[in-house]
Amino acid sequence: MKLSGAKILLECLREQGVDTVFGYPGGTILNVYDALCDYTETIRHILTSHEQGAAHAADGYARSSGKVGVCFATSGPGATNLVTGIATAHIDSSPVVFITCNVSEELIGKDSFQEVDIVGISMPITKCSYLVRDVDSLADIVREAFAVARGGRPGPVLIDIVRNVTVAEADYTPLPREDHAANGRLGALIRRASHDLRAPEPDSVDIDRLVEMVAQAQRPLVICGGGVVRSRAQDEFKAFVEKIDSPVAITVMGCGGFPGRNPLTTGMIGMHGTQASNLASEQCDLLIAVGCRFSDRVGIRFDCFAQNAKVVQIDIDRSEINKNVQTDHHIVGDAKQVLALLNKKVSKAEHSEWKGQVFSWSTETEYEDVPGTLTPKEVMSAIARILPERTIVSTDVGQHQMWALQHFRFCYPGQLLTSGGFGTMGFGLGAAMGAKAANPEQVVLHVTGDGSFRMNCNELSTVEHYGLPVITCILNNKTLGMVRQWQSLIYDKRHSQTDLYRGPDFIKLAEAYQLGGKRVTTLPELEEALSEALAFGKGYVIDCAIDSDEMVRPMVRAGTQITQFLLD
Amino acid sequence: MGNTKKLHTLAVQVDNEAGVLSQVSRMFSRKGYNIESLAVGATNNPKVSRITIEVLADDAHAELLCNQLRKLLPVHLVKLLEPHQSIRRELVLIKVRAPDSETRNDVFQISHIFRGSIIDVCSETLTISLIGTEEKIEAAQMLLAEFGIKELVRTGMIALERGRYTIDEDTKEKGEFNYGKHVL
Predict the structure, then answer these.
(1) Which residues pair with residue A472 across a beta bridge?
(2) Is residue B95 a contact partner of residue B155, using CB atoms and an 8 Å limit?
(3) Are A452 and A480 in contact (CB under 8 A)?
(4) Under 8 Å CB-to-CB from A54, ≥6 apart: which residues?
(5) Contacts of A74 (CB under 8 A, 6+ apart)
(6) To 10 degrees, what angle do helices A399-407 and A376-386 make?
(7) pLDDT bucket at B175, cuts 50 / 70 / 90
(8) CA A297 → CA A190, A423, A559, distances in Å?
(9) Mean pLDDT throughout A144-152?
(10) What kind of architecture, by CATH, is found in domain B6-86+161-170?
(11) Which partner from A466, B29, B116, B132 sits 20 to 30 angstroms from A333, CA to CA?
(12) Contact across the interface for A194 and B77, Cβ inside 8 Å
């Protein structure tokens, strides 16, 4: 049948089972929004306050559900407002399809109103960027884009459609998703020798070699990275580490890949890692990193990371192997698949002595309780006590993020949404909305700081309008805490431009958006506010006053050895 | 793996489409590398272009750059060409000042020694085309400099493997053919 480009686009979204789109209309994307009127039954559009919020929401939707998130924006500023969101999704391997429209063919290259080369801009921060100038190729490209976003190491993809293509008509033949791989562009791509839509079969020689290394290891350590979360390999991972009886260190992106309460957990590894994790990485004789790219926040100093160990990397992306840390062995493949194969071959082991040593080091930071004031630890513990165990937690970036990761015990993949790689302040509220849209039955908590919250708090309007009851908990220390911490420790307490003794009054702000809110300074007040927030049925903002000089501990200074704690 | 930087030659086969060259070249700048030489053209298959890139890097990083390139969707094949197993050639056009017959004669002789050919002549200049590796071209350039080089242009190095091997066969090595391009 003949359909307009705009309709073909929406039909293709239906083929993919897309039920929710986050976005913001504008001049060039008008035809798509017009066609959307005929799809209100099947596609829910959530209009955010700002394109950045939409990008983070689509990302949060993808991270929490494992499905592909979708985000619309118009040309020019609409497209460039997505950029931070695209980069955030890219470095954390989150599958999102961003769809923008550009000016009409005859206006391209003429510096027209709201024209920008978003395909060029987004190239280094997407898996692929497409410019659609021919309506006949539209369906094909959309199908390929979804497969690329979802496949292998997931990531964002951008499709930029010139305006006239959304009006032009073309033949559209519905094609069920399972047939996409055999047809059109995607089919050609897959047939090309080195492409393969299936996850690659891990090499059995590689597996056998790792099995041998595990058998010889006396002091193993396994790192649970973001790859375990992305491939939803939690069961295989747990079976593997329990079988080989190895302690497990968890990265920021790996939270939820392995139960935080499991007795094998040594806690977070890296810059704010626990004594147990960081010291174990130094003293182990075999380090197996699963779905972990050894970012500089994990490895800290690559030349001496795990220097006494044989390092083994399991990753789906070959370009991650040996990128930061030189490995002794690697397996390229999907974490779930590799671990399942390993579990069949690896023999049961016991490492009580080594575990005894590792768990003699602390796996948790001892924060002091200061009577009469709220400490971050008290806030996090109260939240964990009162909210359901499976609450989805999104964070922004800074001290509150690290405290949340230290104190919550995440128990399933997709439970934590945090900008680990890009460190995007302002990510949390959008991501929480996306998660709530994808998981309406789940309680969604947004932990933030006063600095981060201020960045994108305009999305409270979206929270209210669409009835996405996100609970926002601000750890308000009246400062950009993490920067202040560095200034205190490394810059001789010269607190340059980090004081935030200023408005707004976050509770009044919440009220302005017709949401609930409460300022709390003591533990009982916080507990009461949390219970009220749970029952409130709408968005709720809790403003917790904490001390400006509270620090995240432990801390290893960037560029030093992982065991040289600047703070214990 | 060695830590000393040396010149590596990468042969890259890509979709012959708009934007692909920019995607490939910006990968190098993104990772902090300068492209020393670049040559692009269609292959015997008009849908496929071949890019030859020369980059200064140590062995380990050259391998990482190849892996990064393999991730790009329009990139079909990437191969690091070993210097002793490949032929590298570059074409250079040099316009030399030659206002009198004596100079023209000298320039002609030098060109002849380097197996170059005179492809344009006028009362004031001679234009020579030369094919070779950088050593040969630099030597010619040095000798011609005394007459005065008015303009010089190089195509960038192109390279092929010696013997019966082709870019397609190599990638079947373990870890590349099977998983290398695991973007999907």
Answers:
(1) A446, A541
(2) no
(3) no
(4) A22, A23, A24, A46, A48, A71, A72, A73, A82, A85, A430
(5) A24, A25, A26, A27, A28, A29, A100, A101, A114
(6) 50
(7) very low
(8) 35, 11, 9
(9) 94
(10) 2-Layer Sandwich (3.30)
(11) B29
(12) yes
Question: Rounded to 5 degrees, what are φ and ψ at B177?
Answer: -65, -45
Task: Tell me the domain boundaries of chain B.
Answer: 6-86+161-170, 87-158
Chain A residue numbers with beta carbons less than 8 Å from the beta carbon of B22 are 120, 123
User: Before B74, cis peptide (omega within 30)?
Assistant: no
Q: Measured between alpha carbons, how far is A364 from A250 in angstroms, rounded to an integer? A: 13
Which tokens is A305 given?
């990371």
CB A70 within 8 A of CB A129: no
> Residues of B with CB below 8 A from A189's CB?
73, 184
CA B154 to CA A250: how far, in whole Å?
53
A558, A552, A567, A564: which is closest to A297 by C-alpha? A558
The minimum CA-CA distance between B22 and chain A, rounded to whole Å, is 9
CATH of the structural domain B87-158, one choice from 3.50.50.60, 1.10.3720.10, 3.30.70.1150, 3.40.605.10? 3.30.70.1150
Total count of residues recorded for chain A: 568
Are the C-beta atoms of B159 and B52 separated by less than 8 Å?
yes
- Taking CB atoms and an 8 Å cutoff, what residues of chain A touch B15? none
Confidence of residue B177 (pLDDT cuts 50, 70, 90): very low
- Closest Cα of chain A to B17: distance in Å? 12
Give the residue numbers in B contacting A (CB under 8 Å), as ranges: 19, 22-23, 26-27, 30, 60, 63-64, 67-68, 70-71, 73, 76-77, 168, 171, 174-184
Tell me the pLDDT of chain A averaged across its residues: 95
Whether residues A200 and B179 touch (CB distance < 8 A) is answered with: yes
Q: Which of A43, A63, A45, A19 is nearest to A427 (CA)?
A: A63
**Measured between alpha carbons, how far is residue A516 from residues A432, A469, A475, A512, B150 in Å?**
17, 10, 17, 10, 77
Joined tokens for residue A130: 């497409």
Contact B177 A192 (CB under 8 A): no
CA distances from A32 to A70, A308, A441 (A): 14, 58, 30
Secondary structure E strands in A285-443:
286-290, 310-315, 329-332, 392-395, 416-417
DSSP 3-state of A115: coil
Does the pLDDT value for residue A486 go beyond 80? yes
Q: Which residue has the tokens 């380097």?
A: B114
Question: Which domains does chain A show, CATH number per domain?
Answer: 2-191 (3.40.50.970), 204-358 (3.40.50.1220), 376-556 (3.40.50.970)
Give the three-state DSSP class for A204.
Answer: helix
pLDDT tens for residues A37-80?
A: 999 999 999 999 999 999 999 999 999 999 999 999 999 999 99
Q: Is A173 exposed, middle or buried (0-12, 13-18, 19+ CB in 10 A)?
A: exposed
Q: What is the mean pLDDT of residues A266-295?
A: 97
What distance in Å separates residue A202's CA from the closest CA in chain B? 9
Tokens linked to A538: 């709408």
- ipTM (interface predicted TM): 0.88
- Pull the structure tokens for residue A170: 């073309």
CB contact under 8 A, B64 and A323: yes
A356 CB-near residues (< 8 Å, 6+ apart): none
Contact B178/A203, CB-based, under 8 Å?
yes
pTM, to two decimals: 0.94
Partner residues linked to A393 by β-bridges: A416, A445
